[in-house]
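Step 1: inspect the first sequence and its tokens.
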Amino acid sequence: MAMNLTQKILSAHLLSGELIPGSEISIRIDQTLTQDSTGTMAYLQFEAMGVKRVKTKKSVAYIDHNTLQTGFENADDHYYIQTVTKKHGIYCSKPGNGICHQVQLERFGVPGYTLLGSDSHTPTGGGIGMLAIGAGGLDVAVAMGGGAYYLACPRVVGVHLHGKLSYGVAAKDIILEVLRRLTVKGGVGKVMEYIGDGVKTLSVPERATITNMGAELGATTSIFPSDEVTHAFLKAQQREQDFVPLSADPDAAYDEILDIDLTALEPLVAKPHMPDIVETVKQCGPIKVDQVFIGSCTNSSYTDMMRVARILKGKTVHPDVSLVIGPGSKQVLTMLARNGALADMIAAGARILESACGPCIGMGQSPRTNAVSVRTNNRNFYGRSGTKSAGIYLVSCETAAVTALTGVLTDPRCLDIDLDIPMPETYTVNDNLVIPPVAPGEEDTVEVVRGPNIQPFPLGKPLADAISGKVLLKMEDHRPHCAVGCEAPAVPLECAVLVGLLPDPRGRDVPGAREEGRRWHPRCGHELRARVEPRTRRACPAVSGYPRCRREVVRPYSSGEPYQQRHSSADVPE
């Protein structure tokens, strides 16, 4: 049977379930990544599992978020991550080496692999043909321990790209167009798979811009094929051996199709305070701008930075604008410094930031009160910049750079500059800020260093047959009420099991009438307004003492809600 690319990778990694949209499946994870704001807890959880060494093909810890280190806690976290990763078979990317998604793309991503990352923009890896999914730190810890990753089998949307982008229109404008059409909820439960003749016109960094911001659709992930463009990128990164050609079968089917004519696109802008409030730069008008930020995991590649440098060369930033630029990695920054592009940026009046997440996550460079800030990152949520009264507008690097010069939001098609930046034949490769782990068998030679703010993860215990202790009650609506509204006293849900109103979570029968799954009030005999929902709890098979079990979770009905069963599940350890 013909398969699309998403189905091929899922099928090759499938551990349980069937590839039926909406049904639960589990997959094997090849690579993981963490960053320092989520990594500390993830590695504490991994340590608690008692697994000596990670079981993935490669796991990398990045320190790229809290790099300002304004207190000892951040520095303690960073050194804990550096030592715990060295002990357990994980590579550590030190501060200054770059943003996790940019470096993962450059140095570690492999087409056809699955990647699970404790950062929502992990889907950036789809630009190189990976099935890359953002998840919680615990999910990543379980994957490092050899456990499966559980998810609902996604629907696959074929995003058909036609033609080629016009002058001044960028890959950022493609994903803004997708957001304009589908909204921030339009990708929930779906994988956005890019197909069509327009795909081959986009470089790997441009594809990664699109898959990165696909997270704002709420999508499970986004993915491009691995083709001759991917091969050229990996060869330039001196990783030609990692290339694998991958694409959908010619007659593959998709659950939905979205057609985009690249030649018809214009420069777009996402207005405050959501990434899907999109219109053309021309429609938005020449808004006065106070700040411009160019960088983040969305738009900080070498080609992005070179276009910006070319626009700024020989010019001066508008006196009312603060321009800050953050190259995405040490590789990018080094190459800009060597070819003179960095000097052009500095001469124009740009402030250069370290290769880290920075302003995108509110880590410095908060705009002034009531400011308009034009940025190339992926989110413009209310208050995310650190200034609640500021308005954040999301654009391409080209739009941001020309706006910094004019002082107002400006369509970059007004430029008379060659913006065609060829991909380097060879990227500068220097992985000296990536610390490898010790060899297998040498784990005991490494001491894990924990600062005073880092405490061991509390271990869980199997549920005892009897539990005693004080009960804290939350009253109000969290009680099972009589369905017909009689005056019989309601009993708090937290005590329902104890008084026999509902079945015991361990499945044992207790006093209280039950009939065909229905629940009855013990005092009036009427049916209860409450539902009992199955909840599945799973854990890594490597974890001892965490049995797979099934519980019942009771939730009250709200007033006027139909009396029906709903299914709710959560994959979390006990």
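Step 2: inspect the second sequence and its tokens, then contrast the two.
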Amino acid sequence: MFSQLLNYRGHYKTSDSVWTKRAVVFLVLLTASWGFAQSSHSRLSGELQGRRGGNHVDVIIQYTVSPEQKHFDKVMGKGGAVKADLRGAINGAAFRVPESALEELAADPDVLYISSDRPIQSFTYSNNPDFYEQAVFAQSAWNQYSGSGIGIALVDSGITNNGEFGNRIVYSQSFVGTQTTTYGHGTHVAGILAGGGSNSNGANFKKTFVGVANGANLINLRVLDQNGASSDSVVISAIQKAISLKSTYNIRVINLSMGRPVYESYVLDPLCQAVEQAWKAGIVVVVAAGNDGRDNSQNTNGYGTIAAPGNDPYVITVGAMKPMGTPDRSDDLIASYSSKGPTLLDHVVKPDLVAPGNLIISTLASTSASLYTPSTMVPTNYYNNLGNSSASTAYFKLSGTSMAAPVVSGAAALMIQKTPSLTPDHVKARLMKTAYKNFPQYSTATEPTTGQTYTSQYDIFTVGAGYLDIQNAMQNTDLASSTVGSANSPTVTRDANGNIVLVKATSVIWGGSVVWGTSVVWGSSVIWGTNVTGQSVLWGSSVVWGTSSMQGYSVVWGTSVVWGTSSNDASEATAIETGGEN
């Protein structure tokens, strides 16, 4: 699942749901001169430009300096009110302001950018249960490592402890007030991360459901409501809290199984800036890619659908694989709903890697949870020799990139327990280099409800650097540069002949040595050699977008972002989250 800052099911979604509010078409034109010499108009995000009515709007204002009380007073002097002080994560805060004040507030030379406080949701998709821990060789580490002593901040819909987590939920805070209804997404993600398997362990059980880092401590930061929805400012507040608690609980990993559409470059996006601050504070940030890989509403075949903040080059962005109901990874396939790169506007190569995310059985918060439906129920006799076909009250299944992200977060915790000195860039680089890279060129999947088929191509924008391999990652001793950002995901561009090529930057490790060469990290099957200037040419680019006269080409490679009516509407988002894919 992928909670889109609503729960990739709707608004701020989790990786298991889908963008829902796309009926209105937004066109954001971003000029090349959006630096510090901006006009007041260009300091407003596209959806705020031209709004001068009498209504109030929720916004996030980022400043070029750390804002002081005088900056807040100026906003309040224009009839605004402070919603959330976000200075612990970004140089800014969330406000509610009159539309009529937007242009004047943007004219302040200390203002960098004003954007809407956008909705976010989880990314869940849900069908037959799969063997995620075997597929990524998690058991190879469990004799020595469990993530013990490592704190993982779970920014999600909250965790209900049904006995699976013992006393390892060391801190809890809700940023959405008291919720009378349980959503269920956060507890499921927590089970994948750090479930202890207490409800499926013993002589009568044929399958025990344990998390990848089943000894790690959990910092429970609730940002999604009972519908899986949230907003930028709420999620940023939780990230800010995780940063402030880093030393207290040894928080080394943040898991974000959620996101929302991309509205501007990551350089200006407040949500992206918040995750960067966490990364720079020494916390590995793992983000679900999104569940829009089937979206062809812009004729892109699902390319260019990576959600924010997964579009940020610092973070580890994770797509979803299907373990196919077997413990052997050789038959595993990409989930057709898994969002694909490159990122809009910035053309960053994403996802960074893929992990199991389809039909994953994990911890059930409550039988009254919103996501607990007939399609997500698991029969007790699936894992209990003494059970029957009645639905389990301890576990259920969900699907989506929301489920894939915590597999990688758990792997990061194991690596850090083994080698506490690892930086976020060290972890990211090792995970990408050691990922399994043997894939078919294409695969076809069928949507269980509609019977519609989807064909996936295994290129760099679909599977990234490959399929998570915990055993290889734990054994690897290669160290990337200790410079923050040295493992930033690269960007791509088009050369004079129309080839899609990787852009080499001197500040990052990729391609800079034999150890971190492009073919080593991404595999020779997606790197087809070099052009005349020595740039790595990627496989499959002409198949994906066709010629420059086609709509999909301009959407992926243009300088604007267009949101129309998505082919993945609310009902399909829910179907993905709760039904998965065959």
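Step 3: confirm your contrast with the notes below.
The domain at 1-489+566-582 is CATH 3.40.50.200 (Rossmann fold). The chain has one domain: 1-489+566-582.
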